[in-house]
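Troubleshooting entry. The earlier prediction with fe (ii) ion gave an output that would not parse, so I re-checked the input for stray whitespace and re-submitted. Clean input:
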Amino acid sequence: MSKKKEFLNSGVTKLAFSFDALDPIRQLYYDILDNNLHPSVDIGIKAHEDYSDEFKSVSMRWYFAKSPDAIKIFRDVLDGCELALSRDIIGKSRNTMRVVQANIIETIGSYPTGRWHSDFHHTKLGTNESGTLLTPLFPFQPYFGGLETTSAHRDEYDAYDELATVHKYQEGQGILFDGTSTIHRTQSYKAYPGDKRILVCWQFGCTRDELQPVLTEVGENNGDPMFFHEHDYA
Ligand SMILES: [Fe+2]
């Protein structure tokens, strides 16, 4: 089955790419930690929310692109490798399917049972109009949690667990899923206290004029700015 068909049928597909292609994002991560970012590369930091007592012990951070030069680093990596195919898989036109948000997700230590959710939820956003692509930034421990998706419909809360599938992350493989329709969560896992599980996340949105206000609202809800301008590499 083609990747596009698989994405449309099941809401999830996987893309192989060269692991070295992520080097500029690794450098970005080191520069964030060393406080060594170029002034035009603005990165915001967000901590996870405490959904429950269990989450009080979770150390999870999102380093998100906050300026055009910051989103450019993520876009250029994507457009420079096999992951660029994502923009043809989601939606109807790669020209308007753009990386509108991007971040590095860092989890230190273990992770409890997560909350099922979709990334780009809005009544005016449909299936195949947004997407999320996740991949390990660094070598990944086999005991780190994968991505759990459910084939249950959004309204069938009771069936989420029963219809769940675990997708293990692999170095050099991106997992692409529908940003609006695919309900998912991080698979819970036990790790050593100092273990760092680090993923790169690209969020795609269809930037047709009528959808930009909708995406802007989604961005206001998740706290990261949205970027609608054209990619440097079409
Ligand atoms: Fe998510």
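This one parsed fine. The mean pLDDT is 95.
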